[in-house]
Amino acid sequence: MGSLAADAHYPDAADRSLVLTHPTAAEKEQTWRLNHGEWGGPLDLPMYLKREPFLASTSLAANGGMVHWILTDAPPTQPVSQHEKRRVLASCEHICKRVLYVPRNGDEVREGFGYGIGSVYTYPEFRGRKYAARMLRELGEVLKTWPEEEQLRKKRSQGDEPDSRGQSNGQTKAEGREAVCSALWSDIGKRFYASKGWPAFASGHVEFPSSSPESPLGTPSLLERSVQPHGTSLTLVPVNTSNLAQLCAEDEAQLRVELIRHAREHQRIAFAFAPDYDVFRWHWAREEFIASQVFPGRQASEVRGMIATVVNTNGAAKEEKTRVWAIWTRNFGAGAASSPAKNTLYILRLVIDDRGTTTPHDPKTLQLAFDAILHSALDGARAWHCDSVHLWNPTPALQGLIAGSGAAHKFVDREVDSIPSMMWYGPDGTKEEEADDVDWIANEKYCWC
Prior knowledge:
By secondary structure, the chain is α+β, with helices and mostly antiparallel strands. The protein contains 10 helices and 15 strands. The chain has 2 domains: 19-201 and 419-447, 3-Layer(aba) Sandwich (Aminopeptidase), CATH 3.40.630.30; 205-413, Aminopeptidase (3-Layer(aba) Sandwich), CATH 3.40.630. The protein has helices spanning 25-39, 45-56, 131-142, 146-156, 191-195, 219-225, 244-266, 277-294, 363-383, 396-405, and strands at residues 19-21, 66-72, 88-102, 110-122, 179-186, 204-209, 232-238, 269-273, 305-312, 320-331, 344-352, 388-392, 410-413, 419-424, 438-440. Strands 1, 2, 3, 4, 5, 8, 14 and 15 form an 8-stranded mixed sheet that branches. The chain has a 7-stranded mixed sheet with strand order 7-9-10-11-12-6-13, sandwiched between helices. Helix 9 links the parallel strand 11 and strand 12 (388-392). Helix 1 crosses helix 2 and helix 9 (363-383) crosses helix 10. Residues 1-8 and 155-171 have low confidence and may be disordered.
């Protein structure tokens, strides 16, 4: 592996000899060793080296769902064994995700694939030389036609293992489907990636401190607090692997209706990452692995969210039902067991169930359902030493419910970290529209990778 001390020549970032390709197994491990300080969190190096392959084996990332990339100056025809290391100037990875979108004035939801780009990293000795910018510029173009390009690579050789140049030849999940965008979540502000073609989108969140005075626990207390009429009942059901798939299906059905409505009303492209089962399981797998190291011997939580259903039968010809659910995950920082301030419970997705309703929800019953969700999340944060609960980009309706909850909170407009940024390719990569023509619906934490 090259270093400043050992190498006499550093290619210019614009040099045509630089190659965007896939790393060998040895190069991937070397990259993880170097970026452990950036993204290892509470994991020591040996556990971090176990976590990365573990996440790559999840259903979202396996079988071509995740692809690793490097920028190198090694000739593309130079044979490289899986145990050798070329000079890696920059590295990153992408995860393939299903997306939904409706063209302006559209009346039909289209499906495609989007690529979540993560772990953009430049080896320390090569920083300041614009290698990451070169890598991203090429990657942004490659991903427009990535499935087709991968098919061509597969035809050139056999097998699912990287070939002699470290290139992946296995079937990708996006094969035969169009790529309509790529997205990343910047930890270095909004300007750098915007200048490379990934403009920033809304990056606000609301933060609830879990250390605030606890509200009375239990369903009866919530009913009493909300001054609900007699005949009103509240039911809470935990979200876990047994009901996640059904919630994802219901969420997508409602989201499709919202995308069509938004595109028509605003005369703009309406876009969303699909709230797929595998996406949430990837987040949960990440939490499970870290929690097993931070809290050894403690069984992982089986409560990964909450469904709140309020039924009102008071004097009504038929019962009125209001349902809200949230799916969450926890993230732990360095020293997590003793430093709750570094730990956060993230609400990945929060849904107000509007399916089958023709009239607005009763404000009081909707507030009750939301309050039950919020207090459940705060309980889940406290139980695992998380200092706060974060909800990304709440809608105006949710902002009203937050204000009505009476819970301590503050709104934060992130300027540096986890900035959602997207490059829009459009159907067939035509680039007829730009990201400025797109409204990102459900821009919540579940999209992040």
